[in-house]
Model the fold of this input.
Amino acid sequence: MIILALNCGSSSVKYKLYHWKKKETLCKGSVERVGIVGGFIEHERSGKPCYKLEQECKTHGEALNLILKILVNEEVGVLKSLDEIAAVGHRVVHGGEKFKSSVRINSEVLEAIKEVKDLAPLHNPPNISGIEAAQAVLPTAPHIAVFDTAFHQTMPPHSYIYPVPYEWYKMYGVRRYGFHGTSHLYVSRRAAVILGKKPSELNAITMHIGNGVSIAAIKNGKSIDTSMGLTPLEGAVMGTRSGDIDPAIILFMIEKEGFYVEEIDSILNKKSGLLGITGKYMDRRDIEKAMDAGDERAALAFDIETYRLKKYIGNYCAALGKVDAIVFTAGAGELNWKLREKVLEDLEILGIKFDKEKNKNAVGRDKETIISTEDSRINVIVIPTDEETVFIEDVVAILEGRYDLPENFIYSFEDPGYQRKKDK
Done:
């Protein structure tokens, strides 16, 4: 069984072709700059050099057609026919309250996804475009939606209801939804395995730190709170997103600068966070280099980010009461030991002690490492995320009729003998 996984962003389409029986990736890649001048596709095959082709795609439909053409290309493709694709899985960022798990897409499901597109205006419209384009060119293949928000649907009302007029929630769905659900699910289940616990026995704080950042409080294996909210803008400091700010700042700046709604949205989502503080950098590697060169604003950005991450740990320790593990994952969470060190400093009062040498050495994407000391009351673990495995397993389980809610479904990586298979 061969599964095509699609992740349609605002100006890109990422893809992965996975052979379920062999448990291996046949190829992966992305079409970049969709709808923008200078488009291209990068295509990686197992054991082969990366193939790059410059080609502009005005729409997500054109991008998908280019991908399918590459998949069956005699020189660089991996399929003889598109009929070999058993199903297509689509990442959908926002599922609102309606979707608590991954689901097979039909006309009713697609319409429901469209109904909540205003809750994720940067993400859901391209997700929808990708689904419609894929259905058009692969009409006989089953299409499955995998939602970023599904894992967090176990949050209680006191976690997800905002202290604003309750009618906003009833009329417009204004509430906390949370994102990066497949990542938080994967690393929390792996943490349970590492600690010899059942998922239902695990209390953990999972920290997904990439360009986008979200933290989740996991109690008895279920998400009870998370830092991102109605949209992915709320929460921690991110690459270009502001995270938590005083809402009155928006009104203040509208009065001072006369900003329109679209301008404020662009500033908070694309020109704030680490980029807003430094004025130059959104990549933490660039920030680290600038810090070493004496850039004070780069150092300030580092201090602000790590300070706020530290506060989230304290908040969620209080919310959970008992904490078995703190898990770092995603790009910076897995690779940036300096960030982890700064976040974990001076947390002994919470029972958190870490080994600095173990932390420095935990900088790969193929190894799970406990970096806490033996006498630490709370384990600290670096776990490389694998959202695509969650994605693929959901698709296959739905096709085979054995899927369940995320909190009940048992994944292959929950087996103590599970070995993550690297892409060749």
Observations:
- The mean pLDDT is 92.
